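Exam revision sheet. Question 4 asks you to relate a sequence to its structure. Input first:
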Amino acid sequence: MIAFIVLIISVFISTTLNNKALLRLDAEKKLLFIELFTKNRTWNYLIILGILILYFLTLKYKWIAVNTNIILFVVSFIGYLIFKTYNTLKLLKNHDFPVDFIKSYKLITLVRIIGIILFSLVILLKN
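Answer key, structure tokens:
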């Protein structure tokens, strides 16, 4: 229960920061942001879904120890998040997004990563 509360708080904070950052963009940059990132949304969801399916399959069939499974899930998820963030930052810089917006995006990603790590630590400490 505590783990999910921590995760929900981090999602709430990152969403709030994201919304505030988007509000500071002018109309042209908002439209460009939407155009750039709606194309890949399906692929992002499929990759996350794949990671989750693999996680739950390994839990159900007990292919590896639970703690090892959690650690692999977190490493996979954070690795994907870092990869996605790196590509997003390159795209934002290439399209001349404001420096403040890029800094906000980095902070939002950091909040998400911290939330995932704290969520995982709480679960690991319970096991």
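Marking note for examiners. Residues 2-126 form one domain.
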